[in-house]
Amino acid sequence: MNIEKNVVVAIDYTLTDNDGVVIDTSTGREPLKYLHGTGALIPGLEKELEGKIVGDKLEVAIKPDEGYGMRNEQLLQAVPREHFGHVPDIQVGMQFQANSEQGPVMVTIVEVNDKQVMVDGNHPLAGVVLNFKVEVKEVRAASAEELDHGHVHGAGGAH
After folding, report:
1. What dotted CATH number matches 73-120?
2. How far is CA 47 from CA 4, 15, 25, 52, 84, in A?
3. pLDDT, tens digit, for every residue of 126-144?
4. Which are the contacts of 20, defined by CB distance < 8 A and separation ≥ 6?
């Protein structure tokens, strides 16, 4: 069976940046299972997996426009430190959910001083070329319930 829209796929993968630093991997864990064509993966990787079968291996570099997008410097914002009064020890790297005009968004603390906290609303991998090594481990028809819910059920998926 080929990977196509609305089939369940399981992959082993390793994701690195251009310097070879491992960002994420399934090594030591169950393969990642997802419902193909539902936006569960970044667009570029999903496109590269289209048509593949069990046993296929691929190495692909996904450019930011098909990954998490380009960095947008307008998503950096200085927030008065008192807005974080409920957090006793604010640290660079902490993440918070903030409300924006487009709804909830995750922000990352990138700088802290006595008066303000600089937050970044960009995805941490925005602007990064994503290098994937992938092996297709399973391809199967999705159940009616998985199609109805829009995600995989069972081991490696939602329960």
Report:
1. 2.40.10.330
2. 10, 16, 19, 10, 41
3. 999 999 999 999 999 999 9
4. none
Contact 61/74 with Cβ under 8 angstroms? no
Q: Find out whether 34 and 40 touch, Cβ atoms under 8 Å.
A: yes
Three-state secondary structure call for residue 12: strand
Please state the φ and ψ torsions of residue 83, each to the nearest 5 degrees: -70, -15
For residues 13 and 10, what is the distance between their CA atoms, to the nearest angstrom? 10
Give the tens place of pLDDT for each residue, 3-50.
999 999 999 999 999 999 999 999 999 999 999 999 999 999 999 999
- Where exactly are the structural domains of the chain? 7-68+126-149, 73-120
